[in-house]
Amino acid sequence: MQRTTLVANTSNMPVAAREASIYTGITLSEYFRDQGYNVSMMADSTSRWAEALREIYGRLAEMPGNGGFPAYLPTRLAKFYQRAGKVTTIGNPNREGSVTIVAAVSPPGGDFTDPLAQRKHFPALNWLSSYSNYINSLDSYYDKIDNEFISLRGEAKKIFQEEEELNEIVQLVGKDSLAETDQVTLATAQLLKDDFLQQNSYSDYDQYCPLYKTIWMLRNILTWHKLAYKAVSSVGENKTITLEMINRAMGPVIHRISSQKFENSTKEKKS
C-alpha cells in the first residue's frame, strides 16, 4: 500500500468531481512516470465516468449522441487512453518511465451481452470505429522492414469496411443471396478476424508476434483473397467457379493459412 495512490470518489459526490477524478488519477500517474517509475493505473470504472459526462451534457441541454452520451465521448476516451505508454523524460539524469492503464467497464445493470465479448473477440476493439492519431507515425519504419506492409494494411481495412456493408444485406436477405465475390470478401474478413487479429495472450505461439510474422500472415491471407476473388469473377461459357468449390479443392491450403499463427515465432522466417 505504500506504493499505492488512491483517488476515491463515491457515488454521492458531485458529478463534476466524478468527471475530474479520472483526470486526477492519470495526472498522478504521469507525475510518477516522469520520475522514472513504471506505473499501473486502475480506472474503476470508465463507464461511471462516461455516465457523469452524460449527466453534465444533459444539464447543459445539448444535443445527445448515441445512447444519450455526449458526441465528444469517443474523443475524450481516445485522449485519455493515449496518455498511456513508455516515455523518455527531459532533463538529467536520464529517466524512462511508463503508464499502463487498466480500465474496468461496468455496463448498466451488469449487462455484458456485448457482441464482441460473446464472440471471444480479444482484444475487444472495434477495428472500424477505433482510431489512433499515431497510425502513420511508424510508416517510415515499416517501409524499411517491408515496403508492402502499409498497402497490405490498407487492403485489410477495406475488406472490413466492405464486410460491414455486406452484413447489413445478409441480415435482410441472407448470405446465400450474395454474389460469389461478396461471399469471398466475407470469408476473407472471417480469416482476418479469427486467425490474424484475435490473440490469446496465454499461449506461447500467440502472446508475442514479431513484425515479420505479422507481415507474412497478412500477405498470405490477402493473396488467397485476390486469387479466390479472381477465380469466382472469371465466368466461362460452360463453367462457374463458386466459393464452395474453392473450399473443397483448396481445403488443405486454407487450413494452412488459418493455422499460420501456430508457427513458431522465435525463429525468423521469410514469407
Give a description of the structure.
Belongs to the ATPase alpha/beta chains family. This protein is mainly alpha-helical. It folds into two domains: 15-112, 3-Layer(aba) Sandwich (Rossmann fold); 139-262, Orthogonal Bundle (Bovine Mitochondrial F1-ATPase, ATP Synthase Beta Chain, Chain D, domain3). Helix content is 49%, strand content 7%. A three-stranded mixed beta sheet has the order 1-3-2, covered by helices on one side. α7 (180-197) packs antiparallel against α8 (211-233). The longest helix is centred in the middle third of the chain and has 25 residues, at 149-173.
Compose a concise summary of this entry.
49% of the residues lie in helices and 7% in strands. It is mainly α and 271 residues long.
**How far apart are the first and last residues' alpha carbons, in Å?**
49 Å
CATH architecture of the largest domain: Orthogonal Bundle
**Helical coverage, percent range:** 40-55%
- In terms of per-residue confidence, which ranges show pLDDT below 50 for 5 or more consecutive residues? none
Family: Belongs to the ATPase alpha/beta chains family.
Keywords: ATP-binding, Ion transport, Nucleotide-binding, Translocase, Transport
EC number: 7.1.2.2
Domain ATP synthase A/B type C-terminal: 140-233
SSE arrangement:
Elements (H helix, E strand, L loop, with lengths): L14 H19 L4 E6 L2 H14 L13 H9 L3 E4 L7 E8 L11 H4 L20 H7 L3 H25 L6 H18 L13 H23 L9 H7 L1 H8 L13
Helix pairs in contact: 1-2, 6-7, 6-8, 7-8
